[in-house]
Design a protein that fits this description.
Length: about 600
């Protein structure tokens, strides 16, 4: 009985967190709003400054509020560690080397210029220079945990944001050491500690890179051979936690170790499986972090000091957006990219709270000053998703999407469903042969990007409403389905074939089994991407290692015939499907 009573607060907190995730994610996703806002609002509601204030008057509220907010901090920190780990998985050492100009050029400029200018301004406002320096660089940080899930890492905005955030994450520890060294009660040990951390950290990172190159492929290879998802998950957790603890043990930030672990695994063939198995944990842990941000917001205090807090938040946002945008333009970024990235990177960071705490403990700033800027930071974190929306709107205004010449509404054309990598390549080929087309996609960012690059693209959802009718499906030459969503593609094929029996429908299939299902649904042609890429890779390697072209082409014909027979059998077809797509095969 006693153990049940001891466990109840933890179970109650877990129920609140899991209930929040189950409520926030579906609702906000349904309305195409980032769940970030929802998690922060949940934190405000269930935290000590929300319903938690009423627990003593209404004890039943204890079951729907967080009883011990401090106990969540370790999970919030783990969420940020997992985020940096997955960022490392999406990168590689080659890509990071290619980004060195952005990371150590743009990233360094952004942090130094914003930090120095903010420190100068605060010093002019009466803050002593050491405290102004601490506050300036604390406010210069931007939120890795919120910005990157919004921007991604592949778009121009995402790459620019990633480069600046990576440099900021590298600089966390040096900045905290410097603050300790310039504290009123500090001595030479502060600078000695920084130098010690740097050389020890360098040795640890070098050891991780050497050991990781040899040990990680063997570790994950053994886990893969057991075919046990549990063992694969355990190996992934072992690597990320062990790397984080290794860098933390020598004074570096644990997120540096997590990032390096991700980069090392990205060089192995198991990075896709690791990314997939870790993604749910990252999402939940980040949700906990955002709830802790919401719990730190005292709405009553904000209301009492509303004017001052709004002025501070707006000043910080405008200043950081302006400086970041100007720096991006000087580095050659487009106006739209500079505007959107500058606004997105304008808010403070979760790291700001860490630096503020370090500055306060070093007696560089007063506790009241630290509390004020903590509130400003929490408000800034809350509005970051709104800044992302504002950035997209302003980016469209400063660099409008170019207008393409009007087309003949009655002209027969090809409709390409999906404006991603594959869809735009199909559009390029059609344009090269002067064949009219239009690309359709439900992602507004993809459509805008395609239009900026000169493609004819429109927004719409092929699976809903009359989007295909508006594009002239009744007199279309063909429909090309390029999405990497097997179930949706199959449904669209069935719908299109029922409504348009004579329409040419060409589909991107994931594999031979998916191609067979698409043929059964009514596709005219289904091209299995794994099959064709494998055959072309085989052709390239066989020819380059000295095998004559004739036997190579003959063997590819033979292999393709095997797959034709397999698709014919699995699809219950009364004809052999066409699978001719390689140039060598066509030439034959």
């Amino acid at each position: 009985m006693a153990s049940a009573e001891l466990a109840s607060p933890a179970l109650s907190d877990a129920l609140v967190i899991l209930g929040a995730a189950g409520l926030v994610i579906p609702v906000f996703t349904r309305f195409r709003i980032t769940p970030v806002i929802g998690f922060i609002l949940i934190g405000i509601l269930v935290g000590p400054y929300g319903l938690g204030r009423l627990v003593f008057e209404h004890p039943w509220l204890n079951h729907i509020t967080i009883s011990d907010p401090d106990s969540l901090e370790i999970y919030a920190e783990f969420g940020i560690i997992l985020l940096l780990f997955t960022i490392g998985l999406e990168l590689s050492f080659n890509r990071l080397w290619e980004m060195r100009r952005l990371v150590f050029g743009l990233g360094a400029l952004e942090l130094l210029v914003i930090g120095t200018c903010a420190a100068t301004f605060l010093s002019m406002m009466g803050q002593y220079w050491t405290g102004a320096l601490a506050l300036g660089f604390a406010l210069a940080f931007s939120s890795t945990a919120i910005v990157l899930p919004i921007s991604g890492t592949s778009s121009p905005v995402g790459r620019a944001a990633l480069s600046m955030l990576l440099f900021e994450d590298i600089m966390i520890v040096p900045i905290i050491f410097v603050l300790g060294a310039i504290a009123p009660n500090a001595d030479a040990e502060g600078w000695e500690g920084l130098l010690t951390t740097l050389w020890q950290g360098g040795l640890v990172i070098a050891a991780m890179m050497v050991l990781g190159r040899f040990a990680l492929p063997r570790l994950f290879g053994q886990a893969a051979r057991t075919k046990s998802p549990e063992l694969f998950l355990a190996a992934s957790m072992l690597v990320v936690i062990g790397s984080s603890l290794a860098t933390a043990a020598v004074g570096l930030s644990p997120i540096v170790g997590a990032l390096i672990a991700g980069l090392l695994i990205a060089e192995t063939e198991y990075h896709g499986e690791v990314e997939a198995i870790m993604d749910p944990f990252k999402g939940l842990a980040l949700g906990i972090f955002l709830i802790t941000v919401g719990m730190s917001i005292d709405v009553a205090t904000i209301w009492e000091n509303l004017g001052t807090i709004i002025a501070a938040v707006v000043t910080i946002l405008l200043f950081k957006a302006l400086v970041t945008g100007i720096l991006l333009r000087l580095m050659g970024a487009r106006r739209s990219t500079a505007a959107e990235t500058g606004i997105l990177m304008a808010s403070p960071s979760e790291t700001t709270l860490i630096v503020l705490a370090a500055a306060s403990s070093a007696l560089l700033i007063q506790p009241g000053t630290a509390q004020f800027w903590q509130i400003v930071t929490a408000v800034g974190l809350t509005v970051t998703p709104l800044l992302a929306l504002l950035g997209r709107v302003i980016a469209r205004r400063v660099e409008p999407v170019p207008e393409l010449p009007p087309e003949d509404e009655g002209e027969a054309r090809v409709i390409i469903v999906g404006a991603g990598r594959v869809g735009l390549l199909v559009a390029q080929m059609l344009s090269a042969h002067k064949k009219p087309y239009v690309a359709l996609d439900a992602d507004p960012d993809l459509i805008e990007s395609a239009k900026r690059e000169g493609y004819r693209a429109v927004f719409g959802d092929a699976a809903r409403g009359d989007a295909m009718t508006r594009l002239g499906i009744d007199h279309a030459v063909a429909v090309v389905l390029t999405m990497d969503e097997p179930v949706l593609v199959q449904r669209l094929v069935t719908k299109l074939r029922n409504e348009h029996p004579d329409l040419l429908i060409v589909c991107r299939a994931r594999d031979v089994e998916h191609a067979a299902a698409l043929y059964r649904a009514g596709a005219s042609h289904a091209v299995p991407e794994t099959l064709e890429s494998s055959l072309q890779l085989s052709e390239a390697v066989l020819v380059d290692i000295g095998v004559a072209m004739g036997p190579v082409i003959a063997s590819i014909h033979e292999k393709r015939d095997e797959f034709r027979a397999q698709i014919e059998e699995e699809g219950a077809l009364d004809y052999k499907p066409k699978l001719r797509s390689s140039t060598a095969d066509a030439a034959a």
